[in-house]
Amino acid sequence: MMRKVAKLIDTTLCIGCKACEMACQEWNDQEFTLGTFSNSYQTMPDLAPNFWNLVKFHETEFHGAPAWLMTKYQCMHCADAGCIKACPAPGAIVQLDNGIVDFHQENCIGCGYCITGCPFDVPRLSSKTKKVYKCSLCSDRVAAGIEPSCIKACPTNCLTFGSRDDLHYMARRRAEDLRKGGFAEAGVYDGPGVGGTNVLYVLKHADRPEAYGLPRDPSIPWTVSLWKGPLKWFGNAVFFGGILAALVHYIKVGPKESHEDE
Amino acid sequence: MTNGWTDVANADVVLVMGGNPAENHPVGFRFVMEARRHRNAKLVVVDPRFNRTAAVADLYVPMRSGTDIAFLGGLIHYMLERKLYQEEYVRIHTNAPFLVKEGFGFEDGHFSGWDEETKRYEKSTWQYETDGSGFAKADPTLENPRCVFQLLKKHYSRYTSQAVANICGCTAEEFERAAAIICSTGKPDRSGTILYALGWTQHSHSVQLIHTAAMMQLLLGNIGMPGGGVNAQRGHSNIQGATDMGAWNYLPGYLKMPSANHQTLEEYVKAFTPKPLRPNAMNYWSNTSKFMVSLLKAYYGGSATRENGFGYDNLPKAAEGSDYSWGHFFDQMYRGQMEGFISFGMNPVANGPNSPKMLDALAKLKWMVVVENFETETAAFWNAKKLGEKYYPNFVDPANIRTEAFLLPAACFAEKDGCFVNSSRWAQWKYAAAPPPGDAKPDHEIIARIFLRVRELYRQEGGRAAKPLLDMTWDYATPHSPSLEEVAREVNGRELKSGKLVSGFGELKDDGTTISGNWLYSGSWTEAGNQMARRGQEDPTGLGLYSNWSWSWPANRRILYNRAAEDAAGNGWDPLRTPIRWDGERWTGDVPDYKKDARPTEYGAFIMLPEGVAKLFSQDLVEGPFPEHYEPVESPVANPLHREVSSNPAAGLFHGALDKLGASKDYPYVALTFRLTEHFHYWTKHVASGSELQSNFFVEVPEALAREKGIQGGDLVRVSSARGMVEGPALVTRRIRPLKVDGKTVYQVGIPIHWGFAGRVKGPLVNNLTPSAFDPNSGTPEYKGFLVNLEKA
Predict the structure, then answer these.
(1) Is B732 part of the contact surface with chain A (CB cutoff 8 Å)?
(2) Residue A258: inside a domain, yes or no?
(3) Which helix (H) or strand (E) holds B179?
């Protein structure tokens, strides 16, 4: 079996320089847009169809001392991926043997169910292309034996790429060092509730993941689990019925015209 | 930097003050992270704003902008009181034992020798007591009341923790927590480094501030030590190289600029060749004549002969007391005393203080040439009334501007080869990545083409001062576009007769047989090839010196003053961190900052200084031999140490109609400008990527002040000073804490630079607000710690 890969984000070393954001934009040939101001240093308030890697900035306090947390946010590449569970289009979302959850836009039908299925609120539907986009953990680079572009760009070694088992070990050791160094609440965050994630975080304050913008108990909504369970065949019938109806509509009425700028 | 980026990983304590490396030097900052991970180093950040560096620090202490000398002076007091300094180091490597003349003193904000009329000091009482041979007298016991050490103790006795808290606005406990960590490096086996940048250099007392840092590091025994030093983080990609190549006040290699008092080469050499002040001082500047004559031979070649002083007459000579630094230069332009102006890699409208004055100054020119990658604010200054309508309503209409403006397209850094000199003093050769677009040309080609045309005009038509141009050597293979390899070899220098490239400045002569464009770079391109292109990654000492990677000035030395990392007998203070070792015949390790085969006792460790030791007490600066806390030129309080002499008495100020200063009753808040990681100066707002990562100008407003004023995050606010105003959305934050200063609550407002009226993303120029106030030694403007008002717009 292929080795599972993972990304480790040691938030104690993140300086919010956004090199990972820019590397992601450039490697993936994203069109540059303008950011929006939201009383923060954050590039934009949230992930976007053409912005898959966002450093979130949170001002808070721990034990009375000011803290400014910078957390890189992107697809977590869950072992038990809610997006795959929810997706009705064959081949649109696949989990590679190495653990990467990859979207194939050519098969995407733009239904947006993966967005409902994602416990981390990551996939974004483009209003222009009607397809859903998210971080691919640079599956193309990884297939060629090189690290994802965000890892390559990080100047402080806050980001590490490697085998999932190795990084789990590294993360736990780092958390242990932090606890020894006086950060009693330090720990590893790896998305309990979704069978673990292939993106791991080291947090100084693992008891308060929300302070970093991470959900405390990520889990796949029960509706989605149900959808892939007993209701799957029923759902597919309804869904493909819908596509058939759309096709009939297309033949009769013609394509929907887009008025958005490309 | 005295040390270098890779050396920061050797530190036990990293003090970041007057800088924000996580944000502005993120790649270099990795070595801070390495020190923390591998040595368990402590990172202390002292800054008005809780910034991105503070976010990963072990300790953050807030302070009021412009009060750094008080904080550092407090550290000196703290370590002297508690005997945390490294006594033996101080005794043998500094001028602490030197005796100062009777009559030196400090009273009510002035040192002895102040002349109220000229606003300058007469320095005779600042000199050392000398013996019959002209050597300074010293007391190795450090007990003589007139020795530097005792004077230092007395001077800083006023800087108690309470006094620091009262001036800086942090609490005394916070100050002492930082002091305990920083002063823990006074032990021989501990090293502390200081990383600073423009937060220290941009004050009306900035050079003294850095002097205070150097004194503190000397007292702690941290100069010369791996993991120690005073480390300036340079900003622009080649600002270090530009500094080394000279400016208005220096010729290349920090040779002094001739003045009208030095009419002949002999007079010049005499004035700038110091006499040793101690018998064991190597006094390296005794070689001034070799460096100067080699430079003149590089400039004037065959026309430079011994008889004509090697063409010394061709050099311009400034009138005594004249000043050509930024403030004076633009003031002359503003007063209509300048005809033309060529701007390379500079955008004075955006990056000079008091932008309205910059605009007015440019409008008084006959012609202006801007050589740039983009149409900058300076190139488009004539249209400022329209482009910056809100901010310059009174500026001249374009129709009435007589300045003829030219914009020449320049190649950017990636479109030419050459070298960058980084903060570590490493000259790293680089190669062009792509050809310049369209008609864009590299700067040096533009200079060459202008030079050749102007010289031709002089040749044909004659004119005043034609000789310096006609005498100039220009023997490049392609005169209108010299290759940078040729220029680099000329900078390195060669023997004229054999044509052999010199291997170091030790080979330069003052008889006209050698040339060198910059003695400090001798050794950078030798007969062994381009040393700057080396990429060896060996690190035999394990100290991160990487001596085979590129080439660093001087002489490929990685840690300056490395002889001070050993005691008098030549044994390292810290056996594990000894940069050079004496093996009985020679020094090994780093290139020694010492004669390579001289016995440890032969010379003092500071070979460039006539004292042979480092100066805690210095006669070189204009406002005093010891740094003193002076308030910024605009301040919310009178100096609590001496209210009558509140700000630097020698600060550079101007008195034109646009040089207004504000008072705290009208402008109650302290403002400072700062930079963001997403942008590079005023440049990346022209670039898609930088514009995306931080598209919007904003003003950082302390939460408590926002509450007082009813301002919510994102509300439009107007910030105004006596010079001008800016408008933008408020970023309401708890990261700037209100401070208690001299019994008064003081709010600080942070305003990022980077925006302007030209570019993909636009915003106000922050320098609409900043004052025409300057450090009298360096001419650097006071961009940090000026007064503003803030209202909801």
Answers:
(1) yes
(2) no
(3) helix B172-182
E strand or H helix at B292, and its extent?
helix B288-300
Mutation site for A-interface testing, chosen from B24, B56, B696, B760 by largest number of A Cβ within 10 Å: B56
* CATH dotted code for B6-99+137-235: 3.40.228.10
Cβ–Cβ below 8 Å for A16 and B52? yes
The residue that leads in pLDDT, B52 or A3, is B52
State whether A152 and A115 are in the same domain: no
Q: Which tokens is B573 given?
A: 């203070």
Q: What is the pLDDT of residues B734-766, one digit of tens each?
A: 999 999 999 999 999 999 999 999 999 999 999
Q: List the beta strands (DSSP E) in B131-279.
A: 192-196, 230-232, 250-251, 255-256
Q: Which of A13, A41, A66 sits opposite B50 (nearest CB)?
A: A66
Question: Does the residue A259 lie in any domain?
Answer: no
From the number of C-beta atoms within 10 Å of its C-beta (0-12, 13-18, 19+), residue A262 rates as exposed
The alpha-carbon gap from B222 to the nearest alpha carbon of chain A, in Å, equals 25
CB atoms within 10 A of CB B107: 10
> Which CATH topology does B652-792 take?
Barwin-like endoglucanases (2.40.40)
Ranges of residues in chain B whose predicted pLDDT is under 50:
none
Quick one: DSSP state of residue B374?
Answer: S
Alpha carbons A16 and A68: distance in angstroms, whole number:
10
Chain B CB contacts of A16 below 8 Å: 22-23, 52, 55, 677
Mutation choice for B interface testing from A156, A157, A177 by most B CBs within 10 A: A156
Answer yes or no: do A120 and A145 share one domain.
Answer: no
Cβ atoms of B482 and B509 within 8 Å: the answer is no
User: Which residue is closest to A156 within chain B, CA to CA?
Assistant: B30
Of A15, A22, A26, the CB nearest to B52: A15
Min distance B20 CA to chain A CA atoms (Å): 11
| CATH architecture designation of domain B326-461 | 3-Layer(aba) Sandwich (3.40)
Q: Are residues A96 and A67 in the same domain?
A: no
Q: Is A162 part of any domain?
A: yes
Q: What distance in Å separates the CA atoms of residue B422 and residue B1, rounded to the nearest whole number? A: 9
**Cβ–Cβ gap B677/A34 under 8 Å:** no
What is the model's pLDDT at position A231?
A: 58
State the residue range of the domain holding A114: 82-136+220-253
Handedness of CA B577, B583, B584, B587 (dihedral sign): negative
The ipTM assigned to this model is: 0.92
**Taking CB atoms and an 8 Å limit, are A26 and B689 in contact across chains?**
yes
A30 close to B (CB below 8 A)? no
Residue A262 has pLDDT above 50, yes or no: no
Statement to judge: residues A33 and A149 lie in one domain: yes
Specify if A261 maps to a domain: no
CB B324 within 8 A of CB B270: no
Domain residue ranges in chain B: 6-99+137-235, 105-135, 326-461, 652-792
How confident is the model at residue A225, as a pLDDT?
Answer: 74
Neighbours of B485 (CB within 10 A): 14
C-alpha–C-alpha distance, residues B274 and B607, integer Å: 12
How far CA B748 is from CA of B62, B73, B501, B726, in Å, comes to 11, 22, 55, 16
| Whether the domain at B326-461 and the domain at B652-792 fall into the same CATH topology | no
Q: pLDDT, tens digit, for every residue of A208-261?
A: 999 999 999 888 887 777 766 655 556 566 666 666 666 666 666 665 554 544
Do A44 and A127 lie in one domain? The reply is no
Q: Does A40 touch chain B (CB under 8 A)?
A: yes
| Shared-domain flag, residues A68 and A91 | no
Please indicate, yes or no, whether residues A166 and A208 belong to a single structural domain of this protein: yes
Instruction: Give the domain CATH number at A249.
Output: 3.30.70.20
pLDDT given for residue B424 in this prediction: 97
A17: contact with B, CB 8 A cutoff: yes
Report the domain count for chain A. 2
